[in-house]
Amino acid sequence: MNGQRGNIKEFSVRYKKEGWKPYYIKAAFEDGYEHLEKFAESTYGVAFLYLKRPSCNVCPIKRSKIHSDITIGDYHLAAGGQFRPYNPDGVSSAFVHTEKGGYLVSIADNFLIEDIPVRNALYSEAYHRAIPARRNRDEFGKALYTQGLDAACSLKSIKAIERELSRKAWIRKQGAKVKKMILGNK
């Protein structure tokens, strides 16, 4: 990649500047300049949420319908260090469903594996249900195709949806804090 600042020597859309979350988009240039932007506040982050693969929004493989040997996902309760185990670069939770899955975990190298309460691992709603597509997904996609990314992210309907989702996220975050206080640090 070549631009006004020269070549990009490092690029990440999940850069961990302040620990696990929030993550950033980072572009490090050869001249020493670094561009940092919170992923969730970037146009790329908005597009990522609107345009993820449609089949993911209706995925039937949840909870009792899992056919894998192991299910791995982010251990959201560990974010911020309130729950153990914690690593500022991220922590995953894993469910072993089969004997083969148990064997694969037993031979894993360079992993720190600790037991955690099942209820803590089940905290992520993505384990229970598919996350529905964003409203106005089609409108966003059409604007992206015809007018570009900035125009799609600037649509009034998209901005209104993002404000509503931001308010809901704040309420969920407050609820999660209360839930953590009730569950205690386990």
Question: What is the compact description of this entry?
Answer:
The chain is α+β, with helices and mostly antiparallel strands.
Which structural traits does this protein have?
two-stranded antiparallel sheet, globular, 34% helix, 6 strands, 186 residues, 6 helices, alpha+beta
What best-fitting shape do the alpha-carbon axes yield? globular
Number of helical runs?
6
Secondary-structure element sequence? EEEEHEEHHHHH
What fraction of residues sit in β-strands?
A: 15-25%
Low-confidence stretches: none
> Main β-sheet: number of strands, strand sense, barrel status?
4 strands, antiparallel
Overall pLDDT: 84
Q: Give Rg in angstroms.
A: 19 Å
Give the tally of β-strands.
6
Task: Give helix % range.
Answer: 25-40%
Q: What structural category arises from helix and sheet content?
A: alpha+beta
Oligomer: single chain
